[in-house]
Amino acid sequence: MLRLFIVLAVIVFKCLAAQVELDWDVGYVYGARDGYTYRRAIGVNGELPFPPVHVTQGDTLVINVHNSLDVPTSIHAHGLLNNGTNYYDGPDMVTQCGIPPGESFTYVFETKDQFGTFWIHGHTRHQEVDGLHTPLIIHGRKPPVVDYDEELLMTFEDWFTTEFAVRQAYIDSLEDIRTLTSNFPKALINGYDGNNTAPITFVPGKRYRLRVICMSINNWFKFRIPGHKMTLIEADGVESIPLEVDGLSMGPGQRYSVIVTAHDSAEFNYMYNVTSYSDALVSQGLTPLVYTGLIKYREGAPVKTIQAPGDEQLVWPEETSMQVADKQVPLPVDRRIELTMKKFTYTNQEHLTTLGSTLYKPVLVPTLYTALSMGDLAANSSVYGPQTNAYVLKHLDVVEIVINNPERVDHTFHFHGHNVQVIETGPFGNSSTINREPVLHKQSGPWPMWRDTIQVRAFEFIRVRFRADNPGVWFMHCHLAWHEYNGLAIMFIEAPDVLQQRQSVPEEMIEMCKRQNIPTQGNGAGNQGFNMTGLPPAIYPTPDESSN
Fold it and tell me: Percentages helix, strand, coil for the chain, rounded to the nearest 5?
């Protein structure tokens, strides 16, 4: 009887699934999003911000992308696992060639059993920095862990006064990024200047689900509604056991859902607080920036003043404080990879932070195409090129990743193709060098939280695990755009033998590469075997640095 029920449930689920199709014309738009600086940006169908995408669990999302830019483009559905369709993941020269100017390409995203709060953003030439991003909400088909009456969406962005390419050229000219003292980003709330965002309306007694997305590329955000408690129920598209918090602290790429219950009376209105800050940019008192907005219960009602304690006295969600709703226990480990961030002076005289000692640099063949075309050699990391930071994983192995951060800067790292199970965090390095509070050791509870974007705080290590059950080529990178640009990334080549049996790249993607004279077979240089002739010269730590 139970088996029959399960079969019927699967049939009903599939029957309810729909196809949602969107046409996106990606092009340049102009405006002053921060309320001050008029500049060129990137939008969709002439709009910025452009509408959020809403689908339902099990739906197929089809996005027909036309490129009206003068450079290639691509998109990434941040948090979607793309199991079986690695080629739709989006990172340029990782899983595809960019869509050339004037051409079109169709992405097909299967939501399958995923639901929750996600976002879609550009993944070529860091176009997400210039506006190519929007929320993706996958509504679940089962009751949530906490019932609510209505949903609200909040997004946070940092917005610079110059385009990424211009700003990056300036950063590249600096000997030390910590000397950067100008052009600190303003904050955008729900797509507009944080000082002029429309009020959020609460109806007395109603229970709201706030989906909160940090679509920033550099800054962290803290969000609170003084006088209201929050109950956290989701992180990065994964349901959690309800956790009461005072506010949210979010790094680039992270998402949360919280339940907020409105007061029974409309006697007062309230203010929410949003703080935007960065340890990566030191900017003469411009960090943090504090914004407030109205929680409106009644037009014209007085605003109630709430004397809030300091942040250190409040409860914020941490990577180890959440627990997953389906109560999965920690996975047993088959393989362990330890990665330590360190700043080196490289042979090109750049001073950059990397994982280990190798900077990630894109190669001449999309790495997925190398994994599919190199036969048995695809299991040898050397065929992907000396600067892909490639780690070959065995099918279904449980992989433990330890990331050590002995630096003064916080990072977020995003895992393409996987959620990861957060096991523990703890001290690494000497925080007393910058008079920062010592990092404490924190172990997750019996059911560690899963998510796709993790915070790695200054002077901290984090230990996470995942099962290699998604054959493909998956990027893992810092989600601070400047750090990703400078090579703070690695690549997982997951079960290439199984990948070759199960997947093949659509012919239109192969032809799109050929029209740009990009090879689609061979090693990272487009050659056979380990011959890397044609790749730009690799850069390495200078001899005195590499010996440290």
Answer: 15, 40, 45
